[in-house]
Design brief:
CATH architecture of the domain at 71-119 and 187-300 and 329-340: Sandwich
Order of helices and strands: EHEEEEHEEEEEHEHHEEEEHHHEEE
Strand content: 25-35%
Radius of gyration: 44 Å
Number of strands: 18
Shape: elongated
């Protein structure tokens, strides 16, 4: 006959000796640590920690996380040089120098170079029929409103409806007559020689936080060098003088095609500076790209054009020659930052990367708790790492058999015979024959 003793123990509610402390202000909690003596786990931990440390160090030096940074402040000035002689329809030979093709069109951090032109000669202020389709067709004076102006019109309506050609009538306007020629720009472009024009770009930069000033014309560039150098990505990437044809080519565009209707090219100057004495480097790098939409079928008004006029008096009457100029606008955009060693930034980086070492613990805990590790070690680890507590409604059954040296701890329904209950854990006896629950 098997002899046993059963003790039913209910969980106790712990009450602090210091009284009620609902906020836990007088308590301190710490995590339970489990130290496992294992060559495999120890080696794995060292390897993972070494790998994490290697990544942290590589990122520290590759991205220079030990530096504080300042954005660039810059100013840009340009000087275009080039002269060409062209044969302009209805005008004849015209000489274009720097003042003619680009002098009047300089902008902030940009410059414009004329590549094509349409000329309307001898315009005088007077009355003439509006050109169709800028002006609407009319049948009588009632269709035209005096002093009216709208966006497509070239002038102010007089209120009269007159013949525009043999078949059409349009409203008369007070404007510069004859009205501007609306034909398409010449092809090939008249100022194709602009491809060989050059531009000197002067870029002054500053990093205020570091009191650092520099410009793209470097100290070793003397006058004789600047007279002969020309930017080349491979042979001379620091020269500040650029041939316009090379700029367009670097932007992967065809100058011959672009010159007909014009466009916009971006010249990007990037300053990536390291101001630490040991690794000091602060030189400009240039890149180029087209900024406007070049396909006529993708945009309503492709290219780039503007108008200007030259005035003179003929027989005492003010007269002008109107030029519709097509050309390329070059926008100079400056980007950059400078970095310098900062102890505060280094401490912040180190502090932010310490959390990566928790990945080692997470991975090893996961490895032990899965079938990838020894089953016996997994069970022993789980029993020691996790402590199970029971609900108030549940109870533990402590079973002591005479022919066994341990006390079984089990739980569950009491309807099942105690001999058949599976033990959740075993504990050594504290007495020779009977034992209470540990």
């Amino acid at each position: 006959m098997t002899v046993f003793r059963c003790v039913i123990v209910s969980p106790r509610r712990c009450v602090s000796a210091m009284g009620c402390d609902p906020l836990g202000l007088c308590q301190y909690e710490t995590q339970k640590l489990l130290r496992i003596h294992s060559t495999r786990l120890g080696s794995l931990k060292c390897c993972l920690n070494a790998l994490i440390l290697l990544v942290i160090v590589i990122m520290l030096f590759m991205k220079k996380e030990y530096q504080e940074y300042e954005r660039v402040v810059s100013s840009v000035t340009t000087k275009v040089k080039g002269v060409t002689l062209t044969q302009v329809p209805d005008v004849g030979e015209v000489l274009w120098d720097m003042t003619d093709h680009s002098g009047a069109f300089q902008g902030k951090n940009s410059f414009f170079v004329m590549t094509n032109v349409i000329v309307t000669k001898k315009q005088k202020q007077g009355k003439c029929p509006e050109a169709f389709p800028n002006g609407k067709l009319c049948q009588s004076d009632a269709d035209c409103k005096k002093d009216k102006w709208d966006q497509p019109s070239h002038g102010v309506q007089t209120g009269a409806c007159i013949k525009s050609d043999v078949m059409k009538k349009t409203c008369e306007v007070f404007t510069w007559c004859p009205i501007e020629n609306k034909k398409k720009p010449p092809r090939p472009a008249l100022l194709m020689a602009a491809e060989n024009f050059t531009v000197l770009i002067k870029n002054n930069i500053r990093f205020p936080a570091f009191s650092y000033i520099k410009r793209n014309i470097l100290p070793n560039m003397n006058e004789s060098y600047l007279k002969s150098c020309s930017y080349n990505r491979h042979s001379d990437p620091l020269c500040p003088i650029f041939r316009l044809g090379d700029i367009v080519q670097e932007a992967k565009e065809n100058f011959t095609e672009m010159a007909v209707e014009g466009g916009v090219i971006g010249i990007q100057i990037n300053w990536d500076c390291d101001l630490d004495k040991l690794f000091h480097k602060c030189l400009p790098s240039y890149s180029f790209r087209r900024l406007d939409e070049k396909e006529s079928n993708h945009t309503l008004y492709p290219g780039l054009s503007l108008r200007f006029a030259r005035y003179f008096f003929e027989n005492g009457v003010e007269t002008r020659t109107l030029y519709k100029a097509y050309g390329i606008r070059f926008d100079v955009m400056v980007f950059g930052k400078a970095g310098r060693f900062s102890l505060i930034q280094l401490i912040i980086y180190i502090g932010s990367t310490l959390s990566y070492y928790a990945l080692t613990t997470l991975f090893i805990d996961w490895l032990i708790s899965t079938n990838c590790y020894a089953k016996e070690a997994q069970q022993d680890y789980s029993e020691r790492k996790f402590e199970v507590t029971e609900d108030q409604k549940q109870s533990r059954l402590c079973v002591s058999f005479v022919d066994e040296d341990t006390v079984r701890i089990t739980k569950g329904s009491r309807k099942k015979p105690l001999q058949e209950m599976k033990a959740s854990s075993n504990h050594p006896r504290k007495h020779q024959h009977f034992s209470s629950c540990p």
